[in-house]
Amino acid sequence: MARDGARPAYDPAGPDTELRAALQEVRTGRWMSMRTLLEDTATWWQWTQRTQVLAAAAAGTDVVRAWLAEDPHSVPAAVMQARVAVERALRARREEHRRTHELWIEAWDVSDAATRAAPHDPVPWVCLLALAQLDRRQLWEEHRVPPPEPMLPAGPWGLLAEADKRDPHNREAHHRVLQFLYAQAGSERLAEASGFAHWVADTAPPGSALHVLPLYVRVERYRRGGGQLAALDLHWVAEDAVREAEQACVNWFERSTPVERTPLDLNHLAHALWGALRFEDAARVFDALGPYYTPLPWAHRTADPGDRSQAVEVFLQARARSRSAAHDPDS
User: Confidence class of residue 184 from pLDDT cuts 50, 70 and 90?
Assistant: First the structure.
């Protein structure tokens, strides 16, 4: 564990050394290690995570196309084709590229095909959920399905149900619904996102990463407020903020195994506990992170969210403060 003051590293693979090796191969245009890694992936939560990270690296290459050319009947390759197509469509929207709509339809087609090629796999349905955020006016019928709970808005609930059927409480599927809610017009969507996150957390089993979901909404609310929501960062020490941080710590961190925790979730929890002045618990989460960090949510606490060096400095300050206070509660 990184108990000293060493600067943390951002690594999309985190502590997954096998994924890191496959990523290095993908970035050089080779796919054999990716195929082997996916063939050896035994759980849906790890499959979902690994395919997402690999797609982010493969989206700027032709590596999946080369894999399919060599093995056109490979089911993992078909799933990765959907992952890459979705990643490209989402990037095009962020960059306001003129081919966004074309890439969106292409991604939908290959994701829909992947649901049939891999009928027991939640990832093709996660891909369709990810694309739902591009339909900002909810013109597609599948994006305005009546909600499972009266307090929730119409949305892509059928897609979520399909993912959930294959992998109950799939982490990414629920995060994709949050992104869909964020993307819709109107400020009321943030309140709906908060309601959704709390409903999901309240129904998630012990140890599920979905207990961290409300912390993401709180960061988004802070981001939309331009970091000016309250003097002295009272946004993070409000009663409900403290409760969300403590519940995520107890229901997720203390009841999950290290291998099941993503660096992104750990960073959000460490950030929330630090902000809530729960330094002893925050120190334990920082220790669990070891040498890894993610730019978010720390970047939102800086003057320039695009400057990763500033995000690292906030992370280091938070880690040092938490460890110091945990060692000496009177400090």
Answer: confident
- Three-state SS for the chain is CCCCCCCCECCCCCCCHHHHHHHHHHHCCCCHHHHHHHHCCCCHHHHHHHHHHHHHHHCCCCHHHHHHHHCCCCHHHHHHHHHHHHHHHHHHHHCCCCCHHHHHHHHHHHHHHHHHHCCCCCHHHHHHHHHHCCCCCCCCHHHCECCCCCCCCCECHHHHHHHHHHCCCCHHHHHHHHHHHHHCCCCHHHHHHHHHHHHHHHHCCCCCHHHHHHHHHHHHHHHHCCCCCCHHHHHHCCHHHHHHHHHHHHHCHHHCCHHHCCHHHHHHHHHHHHHCCCHHHHHHHHHHHCCECCCCCHHHHCCCCCCHHHHHHHHHHHHHHHHHHHHCCCC
**Is the domain of 53 the same as that of 114?**
yes
Q: Specify if 211 maps to a domain.
A: yes
For residues 221 and 170, state if they share a domain. Answer: no
Q: What is the mean pLDDT of the chain?
A: 93
| 135 and 27 within one domain | yes
For residue 20, the enclosing domain spans 12-185
Query: How many domains in the chain?
Result: 2
Supply the pTM of this predicted model: 0.94
pLDDT at 224 over 90: no
In a shared domain, residues 229 and 311: yes
